[in-house]
Specification:
The protein has 277 residues and is mainly alpha-helical. It contains 14 helices and no strands. Helix content is 67%, strand content 0%. The structure holds fe (ii) ion (2 copies). One fe (ii) ion binds next to loops.
Length: 277
């Protein structure tokens, strides 16, 4: 069994952690600013060659089989639109942070993270003080602790399977669970404190002293993703805390069902995007 200190040392040694969030932050700002132009987005992307290459590749994969129809970043940005570019950039940023190269093994895991991000942004629409972008990013990053474990035990896909005893198994193998490991990673990456809290408490929202809205949104989305379209990678367990969050947000069964239908529309797009990544 590893010690928590081992996990912290591993995270401390990760390279690139302080630079990537800067690029992510800039892309979030541009996609969020109605006054920004395609040119602004193109500029940021073109400064990161691997991101630029991926954006063009994903745009071509979305051309309904007409490979090569998108030749440069500008066309890709026009073709994919702001929101998709943001999603690709964020997904790439996290992979780069961790230096994960086994993308194929991680597709189901990414789909889970992407679903939680989409649901989180829908939940945020109901919370006045919470921006949908903040919720989306926290949702996308909520399980990065599981990626830390996957990197520490390469090829052991068990760490990506969301069984009911996942957290106990993690503590048994790594000395801490993915929520704690993910929050250390988020701290090291200098993510905003609210994101650190959301990652830390996404399985125990009532333990958070601060950032109640964001923590609740992520915790609820984590469990809803498993309820809507269950996958082996889903790790949310429904408890009375989630009933309380639904009540607090004034969400009825019809509201929840509405989210499931909206997520269904996005699912196909997400699958296609992930295949190209
Ligand atoms: Fe989780
Ligand atoms: Fe999760």
């Amino acid at each position: 069994m590893m010690e928590p200190a081992h996990i912290r040392t591993y995270i401390d040694r990760l390279q690139k952690l302080s630079t990537i969030p800067g690029v992510l932050q800039r892309i979030m700002e541009i996609t969020d600013d109605p006054g920004s132009s395609f040119e602004d987005l193109r500029n940021v992307i073109s400064h990161d060659p691997s991101l630029a290459e991926r954006v063009v590749r994903v745009a071509n994969a979305s051309c309904f089989g007409h490979s090569g129809c998108v030749g440069d970043i500008e066309q890709a940005v026009m073709f994919l639109g702001y929101e998709h570019i943001r999603d690709i950039a964020l997904g790439m940023g996290v992979l780069q942070m961790l230096g994960v190269h086994q993308a194929k093994n991680l597709r189901g895991f990414w789909l889970h993270c992407y679903e939680v991000a989409l649901i989180s942004s829908m939940v945020a629409e109901r919370i006045t003080m919470l921006s949908t972008e903040t919720a989306f990013l926290a949702g996308l990053l909520h399980d990065t602790g599981r990626l830390v474990f996957f990197n520490l035990a390469p090829g052991n896909c068990n760490v990506l399977y969301g069984t009911d005893d996942l957290m106990e198994r993690e503590v048994g193998a790594f000395g801490c669970d993915h929520a704690l490991a993910g929050s250390w990673l988020a701290e090291k990456a200098q993510l905003p404190a609210e994101h650190v809290a959301a990652i830390r408490y996404h399985h125990a929202p009532s333990q958070a002293d601060e950032y109640h809205d964001l923590v609740s949104a992520i915790a609820l989305s984590e469990t809803l993703s498993r309820r809507f379209y269950p996958k082996i990678e889903d790790d949310g367990i429904w408890t009375s805390e989630h009933d309380a969050i639904l009540l607090e947000l004034g969400m009825s069964n019809d509201d929840v069902d509405d989210m499931r239908i909206r997520l269904g529309y996005e699912e196909y797009e997400a699958q296609r995007m992930l295949e190209a990544m």
